[in-house]
Amino acid sequence: MRQSADFSLYLVTDSSRCTMMPLEETVAAAVRGGVTMVQLREKTMETRTFVEVARQLRALLSPLEIPLIINDRVDIALAVRADGVHVGQTDMRVQDVRALIGGEAIVGITVETPDQIEEANALDIDYIGISPVFSTPSIPRNVKPWQIPGIEKARSMTNLPIVGFEGITTANAADVIAAGADGVAVVSAICGALSPKDAAEELRSAAFV
């Protein structure tokens, strides 16, 4: 799986933003529209529910050979035999994640500064999530967005696959890819769409023109 992972259209879930249909139906529709990887990120979900949802998504995605990544929770990833784990700068250290989840799992880390890219280059990871690419209302004011020049700088600093996180839309996805990213990650652009399938198709078409 680590050799064949496709990061091009990376869906990050947020059940609170899935206003048009339930989470599993949203993911299923988005996959039909071209999503290539799914990260289950549910910060407020109770653990038992989180496991149940993760198991449902694993059953949906595994036959399609689309990786299921669990945000932060290595225990849940292990419980449902997910394909990998994504961690942030304040989550479990990558070395500990890798020791627990094994050498074949996909492991990614969020980076917010160039210094963190240099640190990531020395880690046993499969991709880096550049965040935030653009400013959004959910981003604290003291966090500086990378913007397009930042993506270009990041590309010059690493050979790892790069996924752009935050503020990605059909209007800017192509610019993010052109700057050197291997993929774009979206939440509300798909989760909150009237048709997650159509939204995924539009994002994919816009990003890879």
UniProtKB/TrEMBL annotation:
Q: In which pathway does it act?
A: Cofactor biosynthesis; thiamine diphosphate biosynthesis; thiamine phosphate from 4-amino-2-methyl-5-diphosphomethylpyrimidine and 4-methyl-5-(2-phosphoethyl)-thiazole: step 1/1
What family, per the record? Belongs to the thiamine-phosphate synthase family.
Keywords annotated in UniProt: Magnesium, Metal-binding, Thiamine biosynthesis, Transferase
Residue numbers binding 4-amino-2-methyl-5-(diphosphooxymethyl)pyrimidine = Q39, L40, R41, E42, K43, N71, T110
Q: Which gene encodes it?
A: thiE
List the EC numbers from the record. 2.5.1.3
UniProt-annotated binding residues for 2-[(2R,5Z)-2-carboxy-4-methylthiazol-5(2H)-ylidene]ethyl phosphate: T136, P137, S138, G167, V187, S188
Q: Which residues form the Thiamine phosphate synthase/TenI domain?
A: 9-190
PANTHER family referenced in this protein's UniProt entry, alphabetically? THIAMINE-PHOSPHATE PYROPHOSPHORYLASE (PTHR20857), THIAMINE-PHOSPHATE SYNTHASE (PTHR20857:SF15)
Record protein name field: Thiamine-phosphate synthase
GO MF, any single term: magnesium ion binding
GO CC terms: cytoplasm
Per the UniProt entry, what are the Gene Ontology biological process annotations, in alphabetical order? thiamine biosynthetic process; thiamine diphosphate biosynthetic process
Q: Which residues bind Mg(2+)?
A: D72, D91
Q: In the UniProt record, does the keyword Magnesium occur?
A: yes
Annotated cofactor note: Binds 1 Mg(2+) ion per subunit.
UniProt-listed Gene3D superfamilies: Aldolase class I
Q: Which InterPro entries match?
A: Aldolase_TIM, ThiamineP_synth_sf, ThiamineP_synth_TenI, TMP_synthase
Q: Which cofactor does it need?
A: Mg(2+)
